[in-house]
From TrEMBL:
Signal peptide: none
SMART domains assigned to the protein according to its UniProt record, in alphabetical order: HTH_XRE
UniProt superkingdom: Bacteria
Name the UniProt record assigns to this protein: XRE family transcriptional regulator
InterPro entries from the UniProt entry: Cro/C1-type_HTH (IPR001387), Lambda_DNA-bd_dom_sf (IPR010982)
GO MF terms held by the record: DNA binding
Pfam families, A to Z: HTH_3
Domain HTH cro/C1-type: 18-73
Length: 89
């Protein structure tokens, strides 16, 4: 079971992974936000991990927009987090 601190770290990595996916697809924040019915500043806050209380539905909607299974986003985020933790040892 992960501690709250680990979950907060994982949340940050999930947000960064969503941002990474958007940039890989060469999509602009404004376009994605408009299509999802949210503001660009809200999407920016999500991508930068500044929205700790964002609903799972919002994360799923963003992943769906990118045509990526959220499980893959979560897997990649966990892998990157684990790699970073290993590099600090």
């Amino acid at each position: 079971m992960k501690s709250n601190n680990e979950l907060l770290k994982l949340h940050k990595y999930i947000c960064l992974e969503l941002k990474h996916q958007r940039t890989l697809m060469k999509l602009k924040q404004d376009k994605v936000a408009f299509d999802l019915g949210i503001s660009a500043s809200y999407l920016s806050d999500i991508e930068n991990g500044k929205r700790g209380k964002t609903s799972l539905v919002t994360y799923l909607a963003i992943a769906n927009y990118y045509d990526v299974d959220f499980k893959l986003i979560l897997y990649r985020a966990e892998e990157k987090m684990n790699l970073d933790q290993e590099s600090w040892k």
